[in-house]
Write a structure and sequence with these properties.
With 607 residues, the protein is α+β, with helices and mostly antiparallel strands. It is 23% helix and 32% strand. The strands form 6 sheets. Strands 19, 20, 21, 22, 23, 29, 31, 33, 34, 35 and 36 form an 11-stranded mixed sheet that branches. Strands 8, 9, 10, 12, 13, 14, 15, 17 and 18 form a 9-stranded antiparallel sheet that branches. Strand 9 and strand 10 form a beta hairpin. It is globular, with a radius of gyration of 27 Å.
């Protein structure tokens, strides 16, 4: 064992307080100076994480408590980033399972706990947000225990210690009746109940569980030393996924302390380290002593359940915003992503301008798209499609466990909507405060576009969470769009007069002055059929009209779609055009006669 080290991962459902708790642990361990200004959720360093208030990437930090170093891995709480959680769990010996004192175990709680129990990790249950006025910690503990039993926890794992915390206040206590003053009870529980790293005898061996990069030293390989020790300048063997062995040399060696990497001359088994100087290293590969190339098992992650087609932007407005617009640049970027994003799959298609990209869910793929557009890429993406399996001649599709928290008054329309999407209710619990929790098993394709409809049907009060539940026989056809699109029929600039003339046809997605092109979707109609409209029509002035006649004209508020809303909205014959400055929806075939021809061919194939 490495007695003065503890390696832990912090796991929980999204928004249950993981990153805020890490903030408190860093502050109280003396990492920051007394007068140092520290941002809230300091571990969420990625710009998208700060904007959305969620953790996307697993990150390493470390604190020292009473001469014991605690390596902490902050993991994402959203199911779409489960690959990050699985990698983090491969480096630790215990987990802090954080559960909200009111919400209790949620879908992602079940997912991350199952992974931890399968790896035989020692759990510490942290009931957070005990200062909430509606907190019910004792009921939540009962629910957590039931979840452990349901997941087949061993007797040792069922004997889990419990700590009650308020991460925002920076306090912890062993019993609800106690008064918390700081996080010392949490630190003590970690030291007492999480085992030191179990290390093997023999020469240096480490599996790469994560990658990092900076402009000075290039790529870092991050992992826990499984056995032996390593020094800066050592020659090592890199064992590739295909078994090929390459000689490499370690340039520099780092360990984590607080938010920084600290360079050290050497490190021993049990420590989590970062190595620089290893060329083109990939996640899951093994680094060993040069003369003893002995590979560790590859990290396995769950398979993707959703795929989209990424293609080169070929719209009439292509190339006006982005700096990376060619198929070569797009392909390089996608294949570079799979090096660090282990849950993602990228495959070439018959077209040299299109690729099949598969991930864990819509958020997983939309975060990739958002990062690419911020880097200057232009691309087009298709409607998300679920990934089917065929076993023993039967077609199987991915099923999600869906959990909704909604006001009771909106149950009727929400359940009717889910019924059309082939959902089956499994549980219903009333909170006694006017809200109800509904649980369903629903095909993954039935969730596409559901989030925005839920917010509309509940007037913004609905909360949904879902997680992959498994594969089941195909449930039949599902229709998720009941309205056709409003399509621009010419190139030009949208005018107030043109928009005013067509706004009764449906809800518009654009404002006056927007540049449009033939085949671009500018709104959603009131009818099932697509309708072509002229939004560029100008008012011809005569001597009977003054030039100021339109000044009092007021259009209805347009519905400006975000990237995720656009991806949810599109139908099978539409694409989302994404540039650094714009998100547009368009038809796959821009010309009217091409769309009619494609529809005719589709009808022939159908029958």
């Amino acid at each position: 064992m490495a007695p003065n080290i503890r390696n832990i991962a912090i796991i929980a459902h999204v928004d249950h307080g993981k990153t805020t708790l890490v903030d408190g642990m860093l502050r109280q361990s003396g990492i920051f100076h007394e007068n140092e200004a520290v941002a809230e959720r300091v571990m969420d360093s990625n710009p998208l994480e700060k904007e959305r208030g969620i953790t996307i990437l697993a990150k390493n930090t470390a604190v020292t408590y009473k001469n014991t170093k605690i390596n902490i891995l902050d993991t994402p709480g959203h199911a779409d980033f489960g690959g990050e959680v699985e990698r983090a769990l491969s480096m630790v010996d215990g987990v802090l399972l954080i559960v909200d004192a009111f919400e209790g175990p949620m879908p992602q709680t079940k997912f991350v706990l199952r992974k931890a129990l399968e790896l035989n990790l020692k759990p510490v249950v942290v009931v957070n947000k005990i200062d909430r006025p509606d907190a019910r910690p004792h009921e939540v503990i009962d629910q957590v225990f039931d979840l452990f039993v349901e997941l087949g926890a061993s007797e040792e794992q069922l004997d889990f210690p419990i700590v009650y915390t308020s991460a925002r206040s920076g306090t912890a206590q062993g019993e609800m009746e106690d008064t918390g003053e700081n996080l010392e009870p949490l630190f003590e529980t970690i030291i007492d109940h999480v085992s030191p790293p179990q290390v093997a005898e023999g020469p240096f061996q480490m599996r790469v569980a994560n990658l990092d990069h900076d402009n000075y030293l290039g790529k870092y390989a991050i992992g826990k030393i499984n056995r032996g020790s390593v020094k800066s300048g050592d020659s090592v063997s890199l064992i590739r996924h295909d078994g090929k062995v390459e000689r490499q040399k370690i340039a520099k060696l780092f360990v984590y302390q607080g938010l920084k990497k600290t360079e050290v001359p050497s490190a021993t088994a049990g420590e989590i380290i970062a190595l620089s100087g290893i060329d083109d290293v990939n996640i899951g590969e093994t680094i060993t002593e040069a003369d003893h190339p002995d590979a560790l098992p590859v990290i396995t992650v769950d398979e993707p359940t959703l795929s989209m087609t990424f293609s080169v932007n070929n719209s009439p407005l292509a190339g006006q915003d982005g700096t990376h617009i060619t198929s070569r640049r797009l392909r390089e970027r996608l294949y570079r992503e799979i090096i660090s994003n282990v849950s993602l799959r990228v495959e070439d298609t018959e077209s040299t301008d299109a690729w099949q990209v598969s991930g864990r869910g819509e958020l997983h793929l939309s975060i990739l798209i958002e990062n690419m557009r911020r880097e200057g890429y232009e691309l087009q993406v298709s409607k998300p499609q679920v990934i089917y399996k065929k076993i023993d001649g039967k077609l199987l599709e991915p099923i999600e466990h869906l959990m909704l928290d909604i006001p009771e008054e909106f149950m009727g329309p929400v359940m009717e909507n889910l019924g059309r999407r082939k959902a089956e209710m499994t549980n219903m619990v009333s909170s006694g405060t006017g809200n109800v929790r509904l649980e369903f098993k629903i095909p993954a394709r039935g969730l596409i576009g559901f989030r925005s409809e839920l917010l509309t049907q509940t007037r913004g009060n609905g909360i949904m969470n879902h997680i992959f539940d498994g594969y089941q026989p195909y449930k039949g056809d599902i229709s998720t769009r009941y309205s056709g699109s409003l399509i621009a029929w010419e190139d030009g600039e949208a005018t107030t007069y043109g928009l005013l003339a067509v706004e009764d046809r449906g809800t518009l997605f654009i404002v006056p002055g927007t540049t449009v092109y033939e085949g671009m979707v500018v709104g959603v109609g009131n009818r099932e059929q697509d309708v072509e409209i002229n939004v560029c029509k100008k008012k011809h002035l005569t001597n009977m009209r003054s030039s100021t006649a339109d000044e009092t004209t007021k259009l209805k508020e347009p519905r400006l779609l975000s990237l995720e809303e656009a991806i949810e909205f599109i139908s099978d014959d539409e694409l989302v055009e994404i540039t650094p400055k714009n998100v547009r929806i368009r038809k796959k075939y821009l010309k009217r006669n091409e769309r009619a021809k494609a529809q005719k061919e589709a009808n022939i194939l159908k029958f």
